[in-house]
Fold this sequence. Notes:
The chain is of the alpha/beta class.
Amino acid sequence: MQTVAYYTDHYVNQLVTQFFSKSQNLDYKKISEYKKNDNIKFCSYGILRGTGDAINSSVEYIYIDHGFFKSSNRNFNKDKRTSINELTGYFRVIKNDLYFNKNYTSSDKTRFNNLRIPLKDLNQNGEFILMSEPSEHVLNYLKIPTWKEETLSLIQKYSDKKIVIHNKFSELSLDDLIQKAFAFVSCQSTAAFKSIAEGVPAYFTHESLSKFGSVKNIEDRYLNHDLLFAAANSQWQLKEFFSDEFKSYLDNINC
């Protein structure tokens, strides 16, 4: 199956897909040229400007987005637009999913250790459950418009702890809230990985991640460090796209 990288009119998408296509010697086309073809493996960055629709119609695809740890710095503006200051951070590269590889998981600690992220012990003084609300784009794309209400009910089924809701436009700092959290619940937020490193167990509702932490186990308070190791093995800097290690990774996920 031939892999083709598609780009949109957004500068981040263009830069990331250029790096990927050049490193893997792929055809490089405008998203407007995309046509459903079961013999083509679609590849692009993000789910906006036509890429999400292409993903939904593709039999196989490679999805690229900001990484789980030390991604490029982003600003979430009050007008609900996101700006990126630089692109030296990490990007996740996933096959046939937006969040985690289904057919390949490596818990080797090497890449995580190279990030020099300290792992804190379990926070014994958590005051509340921190619930991270997905962005409007994610809610629409995943077709989960009532996620907040349904997840509140789900959490309350398994815990009577106070629940604090946060999203990327909240005035309260996520870093400050995590320090006081008993647990972190999200659909698929990458902030959950930071939460685990900070000693706060994370639980997910998205099917790709809930096997690593299900809300029904929220009172068990288990820090799943293997999830962090697997995540670190699925993210790469742009300069690494040309490395033998990255080529080996693509082989492992059957790209």
